[in-house]
Amino acid sequence: MKKSYFTIILLTLSLIIFTACSPNSGSKDSSKETNNSNEKTIVIGASPVPHTEILEFAKTKLKDKGINLEIKTFTDYVVPNKALDSGELDANFFQHKPYLDDFNENNGTDLISIGEIHGEPLSAYSKKITNLNDLKEGSTIAIPNDGSNGTRALKLLEKEKLITLKDSNKTIQTEKDIKDNLKNFKIKSIEASQLPRILEDVDIAIINGNYALDAGLDTKSTLFSEDISDINEYVNIIATTSENKNNEALKELVDFLKSDEMKHFIEDKYGNAILPAN
C-alpha cells in the first residue's frame, strides 16, 4: 500500500515537471498578447456624413500600418466631446475649432485640435435656374436662419455681387444689414436642415454641404460656393485631449487624413459639398 502511495506521488511530480518544461505550455495566450501589442487601436467618434465615411476609407489604409480604427458614430454635437473628455474615446471628428473652444469654455474641459481636415462650404442650389444671369428681379433666395451660417450666406451673396452689406466685417449679419439690393431679391431665412426641402418653392437656396449630401443633391453642379479660404475658421478638426496630443497612432491618422490620397477621395466623392483643408 505504501509502495503504491509513493508511486502515485512520483507520477504526479513527473507530470508537473513535464508540463512546466513543455515548450508549448501557455504559448497560445502569449502569442495572442504579443500580436495584440503590435496593433494600435484608436477609438474615434464621428458624425455620420461625411466624417464616418472619410474615416471608413482611412481605416482600410491604416490597417496596413498596424493601426485599428474603431469608429463610433454619433448623431448629436454634445456627446462626442463628453465621451472624449471621459476617456471613452481617443479622439473625435465632427466639429470646427470655434465650436470646440466654446464647448471647452462652457464645460471646463481641455480638448484640443491636432489637425484640420476639411471644410463644409455653403453652396447655392436651384431647381429653377442654371445660370445667375437667369435670376430675375424679385427672385426669392433662401438662406440659413442661424446667426453663423446666415452671416456666411449673406457674405457669399455679396461676393457674387447680388447684394452689398453695410459692413462686411460685422461678425453677425442679418437681412437688416443689407445696404444695396438692386434687384429686390426676397431674402428668406429658413432652418438650415429644411433648405433642401423647399428648393421647389424658391429660386435659390444657400445650403450647408452636409445637408446637401443628406438630401442627395448634385453637389458637383452648384451655382456658386464658398472657397476653402472663405471658411478657414470653420474647417472640421480631429480633436483629442491635451494628455493625448503626442499619441503616435493619432499622428498617423491625421497624416493620412491630410494626404493627397485622402484629398482626391474627398474631391471625387463630395464635389463642392466638402473641401479638403489647406
TrEMBL record:
Keyword Membrane found: yes
Signal sequence, start to end: 1-22
CDD domains noted in UniProt: PBP2_lipoprotein_Tp32
Any Pfam family the entry gives: Lipoprotein_9
Chief location category: membrane
Entry superkingdom: Bacteria
Keywords: Lipoprotein, Membrane, Palmitate, Signal
Record's subcellular location: Membrane
Keyword Signal: yes
Similarity annotation: Belongs to the nlpA lipoprotein family.
Name used for this protein in its record: Lipoprotein
